[in-house]
Specification:
It is built from six helices and no strands. It is elongated. The chain starts with 12 loop residues before the first helix and ends with a helix.
């Protein structure tokens, strides 16, 4: 806090009037940078979540075909698209966005976290969800022979192994998109931080 000492010139009323608009302008610029960064971050996160929804959509389509399921289409499609979207957005916010704002994350760490969110929430979770829901419906409506006791999971995997190979496409896409999103998010954050510091 600045204190007045004898011999130090005091700020005149004109100086205060001149400085006030400058301070307001700097604050407005900072808010503009933060608003722009937040908008870009939201778009990136929403696209990431939407990609997870498409993974769920494809996984559900594949497993419904494998297990010859014709029932409860709307219910299964709604859950395998909505839940991966929400889980991806929430996980990305907590693991990447919040960590960036706290300032304790490197570029490599940001990219790694973003990629992991893409693989886990955007690929593994939608696949597991579609597999379990359609497997349950297949057993309920007897669309495929029941698995032998003790070999439940192996039976379902063998039944759908040919079609599961098609899920490599969303896996590669989620991985690449996770890397790209992490790099872009970190670059935007660094750019905004440098501009804000420069204005100071």
């Amino acid at each position: 806090m600045a204190t007045y000492t004898p011999g130090q010139p005091s700020l005149s009323l004109e100086d205060a009037k001149f400085r006030r608009p400058m301070v307001i302008e700097i604050i407005e610029k900072k808010f503009e940078y933060l608003r722009r960064e937040k908008t870009l971050n939201i778009y990136g996160t929403v696209f990431f979540g939407t990609a997870a929804s498409f993974s769920g959509l494809l996984a559900n389509l594949i497993f419904r075909h494998c297990f010859k399921v014709k029932h409860d289409a709307l219910k299964t499609y709604a859950s395998v698209t909505t839940l991966p979207f929400l889980s991806t957005v929430v996980a990305y916010k907590f693991l990447v966005t919040d960590a960036l704002y706290l300032g304790n994350i490197s570029q490599e760490n940001c990219v790694l976290r973003s990629t992991l969110v893409g693989i886990v929430c955007g690929f593994l979770y939608p696949c597991g969800l579609a597999f379990s829901k359609n497997g349950h419906l297949a057993v309920k409506y007897h669309t495929v022979p029941l698995p032998p006791k003790g070999k439940f999971l192996l039976y379902w995997l063998l039944l759908s192994q040919r079609e599961i190979k098609g899920m490599i496409i969303p896996l590669v896409f989620q991985t690449v998109f996770g890397i790209f999103n992490g790099l872009q998010h970190y670059a935007i954050f660094e750019s905004t931080l440098q501009k804000t510091v420069h204005e100071d």
